[in-house]
Amino acid sequence: MTRAVLFDLDGTLVDSRPAILDCYRAALAPIPQGWESLLELGLGRVMRWRMREVMAEVAGERAPECVSRYERHYLEDGHRKVVLYQGAADMLDALRGQGLRLGIVTNKGRERTEHDLRHVHGARDLLPLFDVVVTTEDTVERKPSPEPILHGLRRAGWTAGDCAYVGDGPHDAEAAIAAGTAFVGAGWGYYPDELASARPALAVAAAPGDLAGLLPGGR
Length: 219
Description:
8 strands
């Protein structure tokens, strides 16, 4: 029986791709060929890697100033391009209403994560829905390592066998399986084809409203 659900953030609860690309463009504007180098790196890597890793790769010794510009632009303007997936808030409310505990485990930084949760749903602050929030600052390793999920379980006092992790990519599935939790794919996110073709086959929800029926225990 599932008693708690941990969620990825980007590509699972919110669509932040337009905001992320807008912030990279602003941050790299003073760097010769910076935007072109980012595109050469590939958007798949850009979305999976930590922002600081991307900046180190494309901006070299000027990475620290680019990181500062990125974070400033995100909080001042870029966050307005982040949108909550349709049905996500209703899904969270329904799970809470069934007595499930909720958490976030993301490779995103804490300030931007909390800002998204506080502002992405208009006047409603979604952050209080979550008992634990694990961000990139909390662990040395990031997903697909299981360390962030295990850290979240320890902080919340939950056991892996009672918990499911929901994410949109194969790196999320790898982390969940290694941590010992159940996994349900967010088929509405960034990597639906990779989830659909994964072997062994994964449970994948087509829309947020389908998630509860795929959790172990069939809530």
